[in-house]
Design a protein that fits this description.
The complex is a heterodimer of chains A (443) and B (319). By secondary structure, chain A is mostly helical. Helices cover 62% and strands 3% of the residues of chain A. Chain A is built from 21 helices and three strands. In chain A, helix 3 (51-72) packs across helix 19 and helix 18 (341-360) runs parallel beside helix 21. By secondary structure, chain B is α+β, with helices and mostly antiparallel strands. Chain B has helices at residues 3-28, 134-138, 158-162, 174-179, 182-188, 196-209, 213-226, 228-231, 242-249, 267-271, 275-284, 300-311; strands at residues 33-35, 43-44, 47-51, 56-62, 67-71, 79-81, 86-91, 97-102, 115-121. In chain B, the strands form two sheets. Chain B has a five-stranded mixed β-sheet with strand order 3-9-8-5-6, with no helix packed on it. In chain B, a hairpin with a 7-residue loop joins strand 5 (67-71) and strand 6 (79-81). In chain B, helix 5 (182-188) packs across helix 6, helix 7 packs across helix 12 and helix 11 crosses helix 12 (300-311). Chain B is elongated, with a radius of gyration of 26 Å. Chains A and B meet through helix 2 of A and helix 1 and strand 4 of B.
């Protein structure tokens, strides 16, 4: 498949290799993140007027799911401020070359945790509390602070970016969906990596740090675990690392074989459907159940939520592929075909997010002028009234996203079926029914 | 340490201190008065200090629903406080004392409990002592049953009553009106030659002659704004909060109506109550019921206007 090597352009290459542009972005992002924590803790408790809610759950989410993930994959991870304090502490430096002796414990995470199950769990934990988290500024402030401190804590105990790689509730699905993005970090020539002495891209050198994401770039075949931090671009002594522009979903040709990733696809698909029903649907009882955390109604909601994700959806999917003829065992077929759900899941999230982002985007202007709710009017937009935006294009855009997602997933399923030599019909049927349900929920 | 490393560390430190310090600094220097429904704490702070003659600038914000702000016994327009927004209010006091500020929006069942105090200190050139309420002077037990034993079949008409007044020896003064219940006047007329409906018409006339159109209009506005949530727009004790008030206060609380707000359309209840008694109830509130005390909020004149309006549920002032 055709690829355009972006790092051939000297400006791009220099901007990515130099630490200073990245550091400047880091400093702004970290200050913004800390400001969001404080706004959540000391600002107005009214979510629609609080900077932390409006900027994290509306502005950031919109950028993440509608732009960053579909077009830049892990582009957000490249500028995310959460791991920075821990990483700087771990390295004992911001820019200077790493010491030979680690400053902290530098342990390796136990093997049984080196997968994305912890990320699946952390995402689900936030998802189950999302009605409260997404609307209550001080809870948002606490969760943002907790993630920052968790990242610092893990950096002092475990090596590299253990938080990003194994715990971050957002990182899991960004990784999953980054496979669809038209951008990738890869090597030019595998032979160069094989013969490279010391593997500085993984182990670090005077030019930079060993891969913070615990990835050997020479073996990269998909975007999932590459955080686009650009360290390998700096450390590679052979100029063998490139950033490519590529066709969408290029990584999905090789289906996943891992159950943690397969279930991630179901978690994301199911969560988008449940959110569409609970948060955007007309059923007040569901909203009450989701919002009243700790009540028996909420426990029922939580059980149903988890049952849909872990039993119902995978169960129906398994029944579909159970009788298909294949040389592969069922478990492997399950994991492989779950890969086909990735484009559909992403488009479900795009369609769902369009609803609440366009509905609530006008809050951004008011919050920008008075971020702490102290009566300021910094940009003269403090009194902007709430007004849903682009309502006329919402339903067509959602339909387009969902139908496009279905076609995209169907094509992916066909490619996977060819790869593992079996029928794609059950997976496509599953995607079709899921799309119909999502269309019904959203429109 | 390399220079670039040092500069980076300084920049990061400045950014972190700025991101933490700036919001904390401006937040600490901008004291807001937060309004929350009474169940979640009401006003915070609920006590404000001020000095006579000095403007008091307040920044009000709501942490939940729409609230309103006004200061009792003060000539001011109430202002709305919108969730997450800040409303500026400037007050000036010319008399010392403790003023009550209160919510003016029906924000919830316990809306009436959303009150706070403004302690105004300083000395006034024109100190005015509050007058003792009539119910205290009369020694009225405002919690005692006061039902009228007899009530009219139809609403009494003051216009009819006026024609019988010429031959009657009856005290029509304000004091007499305020200290007697309609039934008491009706009873005093028992030795006259008038029939029972005619006696009620005379009572209606006396009540009408002690009020004015402006007073009734003012009383109606006060009632709609402050009373109707529980007592109902039509005065029948069936306002939007009535059932919840009854559920909250009906059990085990001393209340004439088993916790329900008073029904001003009930002739037995209203015609047995003197304006003095009603003044006492409004001033003090209903102990152990959902009825709040209004003494620190309404002026004496406002209370008399309100009372005049309450009797309009019994007397057809227009007929």
């Amino acid at each position: 498949m055709n690829r355009i090597e972006l790092t051939r352009i000297p400006f791009i290459k220099n901007a990515l290799k130099s630490r200073y542009p990245q550091l400047a972005v880091f400093i702004v992002m970290l200050a913004g993140y800390i400001f969001a924590i404080l706004a959540g803790l000391i600002g107005t408790p009214v979510g629609s007027r609080n900077f932390s809610i409006v900027f994290v759950w509306i502005a950031w989410w919109a950028i993440l799911i509608l732009v960053a993930v579909p077009f830049l994959g892990r582009g957000w991870c490249a500028v995310c401020p959460i791991p920075l304090p821990g990483e700087w502490l771990q390295r004992g430096a911001v820019l200077s070359p790493p010491d030979k002796k680690p400053k902290w414990l530098n342990l390796r995470l136990p093997k049984f945790l080196r997968n994305i199950w912890l990320q699946n769990i952390s995402f689900l934990l936030l998802a189950l509390f999302s009605s409260v988290l997404l609307t209550t500024p001080n809870i948002t402030g606490i969760v943002l602070a907790a993630m920052l401190f968790a990242a610092i804590g893990l950096s002092t105990v475990f090596e590299r970016r253990s938080f990003c790689r194994y715990l971050c509730p957002v990182g899991g699905f960004i990784g999953l969906y980054s496979q669809t993005a038209p951008i990738e970090l890869r090597i030019k020539d595998k032979q160069v990596c094989v013969s490279c002495e010391g593997k500085p891209c993984y182990n670090g050198s005077q030019a930079g740090y060993g891969c913070p994401w615990d990835v050997f770039p020479g073996g990269l075949t998909k975007n999932t675990y590459c955080g686009l931090c650009m360290e390998c671009l700096r450390t590679c002594p052979h100029d063998n690392i490139v950033i490519n522009l590529r066709p969408f979903s290029a990584d999905l040709v090789k289906p996943s074989t891992r159950m943690d990733e397969a279930f991630k696809a179901f978690i994301m698909l199911g969560s988008a459907m449940i959110y569409a029903g609970v948060l955007l649907g007309p059923w007040g009882m569901f909203k009450d159940a989701a919002y009243n955390v700790g009540t028996s109604l909420w426990f029922i909601y939580a059980i149903i939520f988890l049952a849909i994700i872990f039993i119902f959806l995978p169960g129906v999917f398994t029944l579909g592929i159970l009788k298909t003829k294949s040389a592969l065992p069922l478990k492997q077929r399950f994991a492989s075909f779950a890969t086909a759900l990735i484009p559909l899941g992403l488009m479900f999230w795009v369609a769902f997010s369009l609803s609440f982002v366009l509905t609530n985007a006008s809050y951004i202007l008011a919050s920008l002028s008075d971020p702490l709710g102290l009566g300021w009017n910094l940009f003269g937009t403090e009194n902007t009234t709430w007004q849903p935006m682009l309502t006329s294009i919402l339903a067509p855009a959602q339909t387009l996203a969902l139908v496009g997602g279905l076609i995209w997933s169907a094509r992916t399923a066909q490619k996977i079926a060819n790869e593992i030599r079996t029928s794609s019909i059950p997976a496509i049927t599953f995607c079709f029914i899921a799309t119909l349900i999502m269309l019904w929920l959203l429109l | 340490m390399k220079r670039s490393e040092l500069i980076s560390r300084i920049l990061i430190t400045v950014a972190i201190i700025g991101a933490v310090g700036t919001p904390l600094f401006v937040w600490a220097r901008t004291p807001l008065i937060h309004a929350r429904v009474a169940e979640n704490g009401g006003w915070n702070p609920d006590t404000i200090k001020a000095n006579i003659g000095e403007p008091l600038h307040l920044k009000l914000t709501s942490d939940d629903v729409v609230h309103g702000f006004a200061v009792g016994q003060m000539d001011m327009q109430s202002v709305d406080i919108m969730p997450g927004e800040v409303t500026d209010v400037t007050l000036k006091f010319d008399k010392p004392g403790i003023y009550t500020f209160f919510c003016t929006r029906w924000c919830g069942l316990n809306h009436w409990r959303m009150r706070g105090a403004i302690e105004v200190s300083g000395s006034s050139a024109d100190p005015q002592l509050a007058s003792v309420p009539i119910y205290v002077t009369l020694g009225l037990d405002i919690d005692a049953p006061h039902d009228a034993p007899v009530t009219p079949g139809n609403p009494p008409s003051p216009i009819n009553g006026q024609q019988f007044m010429t031959n009657l020896q009856i005290d029509r003064s304000v004091d007499a009106y305020r200290t007697h219940s309609p039934y008491q006047i009706f009873d005093e007329l028992k030795n006259s030659s008038l029939t029972e409906p005619q006696r009620w018409d005379v009572v209606a006339y006396i009540w009408k002659s002690n009020t004015t159109k402006e007073s009734l209009t003012n009383g109606q506005q006060l009632f709609s704004k402050n009373c109707a949530a529980c007592h109902g727009e039509n005065g029948a004790g069936n306002g939007v909060f009535a059932d919840k008030v009854a559920a909250g206060f009906g059990k085990g609380m001393s209340s004439a109506n088993n916790g329900h707000p008073a029904d001003f359309t009930d002739a037995k209840h209203m015609l047995g109550a003197s304006p003095a008694l009603l003044q006492g109830k409004i001033l003090r509130g209903g102990m152990g019921t959902g009825m709040p005390m209004w003494g620190s909020i309404f002026t004496e004149e406002q209370i008399w206007d309100l009372i005049a309006y309450l009797y309009s549920f019994q007397f057809e002032y227009n007929k």
